[in-house]
Amino acid sequence: MTPGRLDRYVLTSKVTAAAVALVLVALRVAYEFGVTPQRTPVWLVVTLLIAPIVLLSAAFIVFGIAFRPVYQPLPSALRIRGDAFVVPGSPVWLGRLSMGWALLGTLFLESDPSLPLGVRIAVNTGAGLFIAAAAIPLLRGPRIVVSPSGLAIRAGGRRKVAWDDLVRVPAAPLPLTVRSPKLALSIRRPGHPEPGWLLIPLELLAVEPVFLGSVVEHYVEHPDRRPAIGTREEYARLTGQPVTS
Length: 245
Known about the structure:
Blueprint: H1 3-34, H2 42-66, E1 79-80, E2 85-87, H3 91-105, H4 117-140, E3 143-147, E4 150-154, E5 158-162, E6 182-187, E7 196-201, H5 209-221, H6 232-239
Antiparallel strand pairs: 1-2, 2-3, 3-4, 4-5, 6-7
């Protein structure tokens, strides 16, 4: 898995999830505005009600198959941004979450025939904007940016950690028991002689946890390599893999 292929998978998953989400919302709008008890055939009513569920179910399956190459755990691959290495969100999980929210969000769409048409359009436009505003963060997803200055973390919260705040993992670290993949960072604590632990959840990120831990540990131990972070040459040296598109 090269950085170029990883970029394409991530972009394709976002575009596809957004397209499916729009279709789900469009089907619901068609039902709200197009169905009338007196004029709409029963088969069409049933079709419009069932179609979103069928579409979402099919999309869930297709995402699991099409994006399987980047499903966790992922071989050593990072996105190369030019000034950093980026661990993106999992295309499979983020796509499914975005589409699932779109279907759930259609519950906010409402079209009472007794209301004026302009009011009905305004209500549904507002609901559509609300759905989109909540879906965009899902499409962006969590990520970890490894830059020459440190780590920018957007997973289980937002936090920036400078390299000088990190220390090498102690020879006899505290035992850590976790139920899901996490990046365990040994971090300095002001006013405390011993470092503490910062646990970063990785279940929604497209990365192999051990590989990411080795990358962070490498730059903690080798400050002289940090300025090269984000270059194709450094990626090739770090992973032992040539960079191809």
